[in-house]
């Protein structure tokens, strides 16, 4: 049942011993990882039992489990190794927030080896800004570029999912084994954290700990950002006490230092590539076609039989004996379905694409959570101020290299969840209150995130950044085609703030941010007056205007190939991930989430991938 107890594990096939591609990971030769090059395909026609399109977060998890069953699996991934293509920026947690890949602005710096360079349509609800929406193009996919927070959603959210798709497999109780199976948990290392005012309790019972657990490492960072300790107090002062169990037990209420996908041993990023792929390629018949773009799913009648692909100009066909599994992410999975004839009939016909299955929901139902912040100066250091302090870099590097501690070992952070308190709710319209009342009773409406930037002499060493994310967006966006080719980017419209309820929630959450900053608890650490947006912004209209100009995505877009029961009503896949109206085709990734979950999704996406792999294998 567990990967590492698989009989194949540890026995390198003889061919794998012959040639190795040595990949230098991070900073030291001792961290070098030897990858058997015979697990990487030479371009050319090939046949596999299963073809997985997209070697990302979900894709590598599904592919690895299928391969561990003895099946042959071909993975089609447009990118290569992020350790090579992006080095420390992707590997070292402390650098995660400085990676230019995160830039959400129209004039983003292109990183074509790592990112799909997607730019959204102008967001009419957000001052017509075009948003750069980062999406990992590398083995590991977006798990290789995300900001590493890893936790689970609420019991009520999973129950809602189960109810919507008519399958009890998605309840908390039934998903728990997949959360456990996908991860290895390491408790906090208090000696390395070395911050007595930042201790906490947590719930180990919902994890597997030790050496025989799942592929993705989940741990608490080996360093505490001092500014976080003050944000924790400020949030407590407005009613968000510190949780005694953390955010992995199905309850999101109050605050906590978050668990993250960091291997605590050397404080490097744990991704689906380091977790799943590296195990699979040593002991299974998984074959990765890297730098290879899937262009079209091939059908015989309504049965998916293969994928047409292209590696650096070499076009060829991969044939699937059993199934094609699409894990290309929220933007590219619906695009690939549509160019292959699966999607809204009229839209496909207008581009001359023959329709194989008329599914109106493909590309629709895009959920996207936005966030924005209030900033003030802080006297205390933060991760950002530490990393900006040139004089300290040798010390921090030594801490990181000698025992995986110090600011480079951590990506943050302290986060907190709440349903808006009664005083805030009273200001909401009846319509918004009614919409919110339909959500599960344990659904947190707002998430708060403690962040930082380096400060200045006049505003303190740290520019403290306290953000709020709207976790119950009622606006919907879509992904549509401009052409019948995968070589053209899809059109992305997140629909930000198109539903007035989201604007009301944003204004209410903004006021909570100011309350937290204004609490006496954080006063001893504060310097000066509010930096952003500043005291001139007071009326609801001013606040909303600030949010329209400043809000960005929290990168959790999902829902564009929604799981459900009724294709005519917009469902694209059933509870097993099977695409309606065709055979031999599934989608497994963030696009199948029927709605955006509260909090950060990667833990759920790994669990989903494990669950669907189980379903494919008939377990
Ligand atoms: C900047 C950022 C920060 C984030 N921070 C967090 C966080 O802190 N915590 C958290 O839980 N979540 C976070 N997320 C969200 C989370 O990481 C994603 O939701 C999740 O990784 C998506 O997984 P996926 O399997 O759906 O897609 P991906 O992991 O993106 O995988 C899709 C893969 O398919 C490949 N692909 C696409 N099209 C093709 C094609 N035509 N041919 C071949 N290959 C193709 C891509 O290259 C990619 O490897 C963040 C996301 C971003 C962008
Ligand atoms: C990053 O990479 C370089 C080598 O390319 C190395 O010298 C350095 O120590 C690395 N680590 C960090 C944390 O910057
Ligand atoms: C590869 O497969 C395609 C489609 O099945 C076929 O047309 C082509 O001739 C094959 N190429 C080679 C080199 O076998
Ligand atoms: C907690 O301790 C750290 C030093 O270890 C300090 O920088 C920080 O200001 C303290 N936080 C609070 C809230 O006292
Ligand atoms: C927070 O904790 C304090 C002290 O333990 C308690 O009095 C208060 O009721 C708690 N608040 C909430 C919202 O749970
Ligand atoms: C980690 O290494 C640093 C630098 O060498 C050292 O100062 C610190 O005491 C070490 N911490 C632990 C917990 O070993
Ligand atoms: C909201 O609904 C209540 C009754 O449920 C009503 O009394 C009140 O006038 C409504 N408020 C608005 C602003 O419509
Ligand atoms: C996509 O969303 C935009 C903005 O809401 C809307 O104008 C457009 O009609 C939508 N397209 C489709 C095909 O649904
Ligand atoms: C800040 O706190 C003071 C006193 O504690 C209060 O009078 C004021 O209204 C608060 N302002 C905000 C924006 O919460």
TrEMBL record:
Its cofactor is FAD. The active site is at residues 556, 600. InterPro entries: FAD/NAD-bd_sf, GMC_OxRdtase, GMC_OxRdtase_N, GMC_OxRtase_C. The keyword Signal applies. Pfam families: GMC_oxred_C, GMC_oxred_N. It comes from the Eukaryota. GO terms for molecular function: flavin adenine dinucleotide binding; oxidoreductase activity, acting on CH-OH group of donors. Residues 1-32 form the signal peptide. Keywords: FAD, Flavoprotein, Glycoprotein, Signal. Residues 329-343 form the Glucose-methanol-choline oxidoreductase N-terminal domain. FAD binds at residues 142, 555-556, 601-602. GO terms for biological process: secondary metabolite biosynthetic process. Belongs to the GMC oxidoreductase family. This is Alcohol oxidase. It comes from Diplogelasinospora grovesii.
């Amino acid at each position: 049942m567990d990967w590492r107890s698989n009989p194949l594990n540890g026995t390198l096939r003889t061919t794998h011993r012959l040639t190795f591609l040595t990949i230098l990971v991070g900073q030291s030769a001792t961290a070098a990882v030897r990858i058997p090059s015979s697990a990487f395909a030479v371009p050319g026609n090939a046949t596999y039992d299963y073809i997985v399109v997209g070697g990302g977060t979900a894709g590598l998890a599904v592919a690895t489990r299928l391969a561990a069953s003895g099946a042959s699996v071909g993975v089609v991934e447009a990118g290569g190794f992020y350790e090579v293509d992006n080095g420390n920026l992707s590997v070292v947690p402390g650098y995660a927030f400085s990676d230019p890949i995160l830039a959400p602005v129209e004039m983003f710096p292109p990183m074509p080896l790592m990112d799909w360079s997607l730019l959204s349509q102008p967001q009419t609800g957000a001052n017509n800004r075009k948003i750069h929406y980062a999406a990992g193009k590398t083995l590991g996919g977006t798990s290789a570029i995300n900001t590493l927070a890893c936790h689970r959603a609420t019991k009520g959210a999973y129950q809602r999912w189960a109810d919507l798709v008519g399958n009890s497999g998605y309840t908390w109780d039934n998903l728990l084994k997949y959360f456990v199976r996908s991860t290895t948990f390491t408790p906090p290392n208090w000696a390395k954290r070395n911050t007595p005012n930042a201790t906490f309790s947590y719930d180990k019972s919902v994890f597997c700990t030790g050496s025989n657990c799942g592929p993705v490492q989940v741990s608490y960072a080996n360093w505490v950002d001092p500014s976080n300790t003050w944000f924790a107090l400020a949030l407590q002062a407005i009613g968000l006490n510190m949780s005694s169990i953390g955010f992995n037990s199905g309850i999101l209420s109050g605050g906590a230092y978050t668990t993250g996908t960091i291997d605590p041993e050397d404080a490097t990023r744990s991704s689906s590539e380091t977790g799943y792929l590296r195990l699979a390629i040593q002991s299974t018949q998984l074959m990765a076609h890297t730098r290879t773009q899937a262009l079209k799913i091939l059908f015989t009648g309504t049965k998916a039989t293969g994928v047409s692909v292209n590696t650096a100009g070499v076009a060829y066909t991969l044939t699937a004996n059993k199934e094609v599994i699409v894990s290309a992410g929220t933007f590219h999975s619906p695009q690939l379905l549509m160019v292959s004839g699966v999607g809204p009939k009229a839209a496909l016909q207008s581009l001359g694409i023959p329709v194989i299955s008329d599914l109106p929901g493909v590309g629709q139902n895009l959920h996207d959570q936005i966030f924005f912040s209030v900033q003030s100066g802080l006297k205390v250091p933060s991760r950002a101020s530490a990393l900006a302090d040139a004089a300290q870099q040798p010390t921090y590097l030594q801490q990181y290299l000698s025992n995986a501690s110090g600011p480079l070992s951590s990506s943050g952070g302290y986060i907190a969840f709440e349903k808006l308190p009664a005083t805030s709710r009273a200001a909401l319209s009846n319509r918004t209150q009614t919409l919110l009342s339909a959500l599960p009773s344990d659904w947190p409406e707002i998430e708060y995130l403690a962040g930082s930037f380096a400060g200045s002499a006049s505003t303190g060493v740290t520019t403290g950044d306290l953000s709020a994310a709207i976790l119950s967006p009622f606006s919907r966006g879509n992904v549509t085609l401009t052409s019948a080719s995968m070589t053209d980017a899809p059109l992305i419209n997140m629909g930000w703030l198109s539903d007035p309820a989201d604007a009301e929630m944003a204004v209410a959450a903004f006021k909570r941010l100011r309350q937290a900053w204004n609490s006496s608890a954080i006063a001893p650490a504060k310097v000066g007056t509010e930096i952003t947006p500043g005291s001139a912004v007071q009326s609801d209209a001013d606040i909303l205007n600030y949010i329209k100009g400043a809000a960005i995505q929290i990168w959790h877009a999902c829902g564009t190939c929604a799981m459900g029961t009724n294709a005519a009503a917009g469902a694209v896949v059933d509870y097993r991930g099977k695409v309606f109206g065709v055979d031999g085709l599934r989608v497994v990734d963030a696009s199948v989430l029927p709605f955006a979950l509260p909090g950060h999704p990667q833990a759920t996406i790994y669990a989903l991938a494990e669950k669907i792999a189980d379903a494919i294998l008939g377990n």
